[in-house]
């Protein structure tokens, strides 16, 4: 009886847990459209940093990870070198590799499809896929989110870059702040625990504090040390509490 029940639960998870395909697509499109419109801000920011229309569009087509793209053009706009800017973008993009490890088990896509699906392994497709009750709905959510976001992001990137070229100096319009504003808007809802908020706050302090003394792009790399520093501090506090509890006994 226990074996039959386990197999039944596995079948429910594989077939999507009864969630209608239309509902999955609707949720996925909502995420894809909402985030895809942010490509306009990237196009404007990239053009304002000095990149050509072709370079801007190539970044969205080939890189396709918003935070890394904003970090790259932001460092270039601040006067950073290409290697420093690329390093910051790389470290931000590493998280997608960990997403891929989780999604490879959840989606179980054929080997021939995986290299193409890897292009769509980003924050939004991961979140939508993991929110689904079964493998079928997870696959639908991944494809619908990835396709809608990829198409819209690249389209709005093109429009943003063209618009920036048409209006001229983006700094005069204050559009150089569009990229950071969008990035913060995407990041804020993800800070749900005290640890996450502490890490974000420490990273901001490190980045802003070192901005006047380090070359452009380097403060972003140093700010990445906020996470291990906060985790180390929490580990020390937990160990101290454990020692205090032992002494109390």
TrEMBL record:
It comes from Streptomyces pimonensis. Its main location: membrane. The chain crosses the membrane at residues 28-45, 140-161, 173-191, 203-231. InterPro entries: Brnchd-chn_aa_trnsp_permease. Keywords: Cell membrane, Membrane, Transmembrane, Transmembrane helix, Transport. This is AzlC family ABC transporter permease. Belongs to the AzlC family. It is found in: Cell membrane. It is a multi-pass membrane protein.
